Amino acid sequence: MGRRIALFSLGIFSVLTAVEASSAQSYHVVDKWLIGGQGSWDYLVADSDAHLLYVTHGSRVEVVNTLTGKAVGAITGFKGTHGIALDPDGKTGYISDGQGNSVAVFDRKSFAVLKTVPAGMNPDGIAYEPTTKTVWTFNGHSNDATVIDAVTRQVIATIKLPGKPEFPQVDGKGHVFVNIEDKNSIVLLDAAGRKTIATWPLAGCESPSGMAIDREHHRLFSVCDGKKMAVTDALSGKQIALAPIGDGPDAAGYDGKRQLAFSSNDDGTLTVIDAAHSYKAVETVATQKGARTMSYDEKTDRLYLVTVQTGPKPAPTPENPRARPAIVSGTFSVLVVGRK
Prior knowledge:
Elements: H1 2-24, E1 27-34, E2 41-47, E3 52-57, E4 60-65, E5 71-75, E6 81-86, E7 92-97, E8 102-107, E9 113-118, E10 123-129, E11 134-139, E12 144-149, E13 154-160, E14 165-170, E15 175-180, E16 185-190, E17 195-201, E18 211-214, E19 219-224, E20 228-233, E21 239-244, E22 249-255, E23 260-265, E24 269-274, E25 281-286, E26 293-297, E27 302-307, E28 333-339
Antiparallel strand pairs: 1-28, 2-3, 3-4, 4-5, 6-7, 7-8, 8-9, 10-11, 11-12, 12-13, 14-15, 15-16, 16-17, 18-19, 19-20, 20-21, 22-23, 23-24, 24-25, 26-27, 27-28
């Protein structure tokens, strides 16, 4: 009898544990903030301490208060924004202006541009490297990286890359990683030496774009076409897993507290991956078509995604075989994803 009670209690405990785990991993869209305006978009970055969200939006960067969901300012004067990096000093940020072939240094209180620094052709992904106090922008048309001294705000190096760079990450120990989209690989760079150390192939990963990093366990998460997320050992370059995700991803995120990896997908889904054990999808969250870029705020456990409403897709023509539907004016929005 005692054994039965013990087994029954253990079964109840297991069920409750499973329910709690399932609940802990349950995400959904909790809010939607209408920003409006015109133009395309690319990456966004959450500033947890300041409760601000920086969102690239055509020729400007929108600044949104994450407590209210209201726009509180904009950084303007660009030709085509792509990415934002934040200096740990809490005072300065950096914006890659792809069409302007430059990087803007801006003040995070006034949102004023302090300086414009020339970069390579079409700077896209951008990152701040803390051990060298440098800003790295990865240039999609010239296949290189521009290294900027954050103190002097001068270009101190240009590093040639083996192909078209996409999104970068840093490990905080002097290493910079970047996806090479047209070569299906990752390049490892030495920040102090300003040179390439290694190139690692991404087997089964087509056109890697967004990248996230688990600094504690030395893992890189690259989202790829073909509904795959490549998981790579950041020390050896060996592939650990190919995780299933949604279609058309562009950004990745990582939650170190719960060891979850995220992929935001063009098909209107957000894939949540168990990054601790199985590297399997534990949840697929319905978002909105086109919401393929995002930023994860680990302090609040919130994900921010952006998208728009579009009109009907036009028929392809010989001149425009991949015709895209027109954006409905004024529908540019931020989706807020959180736990139930």
